[in-house]
Amino acid sequence: MASENANMLPPNAALMEKEPNGTNGAAPAAAHARRHHHDYAAMTSGYAAASGGSLNPGLWKPYEHRRLANPAPLGLCAFALTTFVLSAVNTHTRGVDKPNIVVPLAFGYGGLVQLLAGMWEMACGNTFGATALSSYGGFWISYAILLTPNWNITGTNGPYAGNTASPLGFFLTGWFIFTTLLVLCTLKSTVMFFSLFFTLDLAFLFLACEQYAVDLGNTTAAVALQKTGGVFGFLAAFLAWYCALAGLQDSSNSFIQVPVFHFPWSDKAREEREKSDKAQV
């Protein structure tokens, strides 16, 4: 792997690395390549794994001369845990139907930590990951603000006089539209990666429709839509944890690697087929 990474360095890599005595040489460049994080080193050529573990659906190369960890699993775990707790509330698990417990998670983990992970995705050159993680970090922070009494956005004496169903429906509809855009960017990645955003998209759709049903006074439909959205939220949470595990696992910490199932039409699958055909020849 070290020799392969050394071969992947740009032509002037040797000029950028110096030995302690001030002389230039290819050996220090190779040593620098060996210091790359093992997950990113494996993705410096060809198409990224698109496993969700790297939170990137297509062609991507990380910066060669920076030692950066993969921030995607952190952001995915922050998203997954916060979504899991809110989905438990939406499905009225054990009779709990008030979302206040989500507020500290939405501010601290799903919000701040996921936003920071998104910022580090920018440093890694991952546009999709930066957009997704930063945006959903912003979603959780804004959702927590909605539920914070001091802001009084949804209170009975607030700006909507307690009639918040339609405004919340608009809020969730906007996130449904945004998530749909991300779903379109995962169609050439993997089954698990696509399923994560697809189930999340459905969760936003059903929860938005729940608010519109509340506004129309149809309580029965509203409860059914809320629980359905909660179910899809559960699926999205577990898929996010699954993708995070795919990004965390490697030969140094696990005996297995969870499969991510590349779509047959994906660039990665096509690349693997070409390698297989060449090997057979």
Automatic annotation (TrEMBL):
PROSITE patterns: GPR1_FUN34_YAAH (PS01114). Its main location: membrane. It is found in: Membrane. It is a multi-pass membrane protein. Keywords: Membrane, Transmembrane, Transmembrane helix. Belongs to the acetate uptake transporter (AceTr) (TC 2.A.96) family. This is GPR/FUN34 family protein.
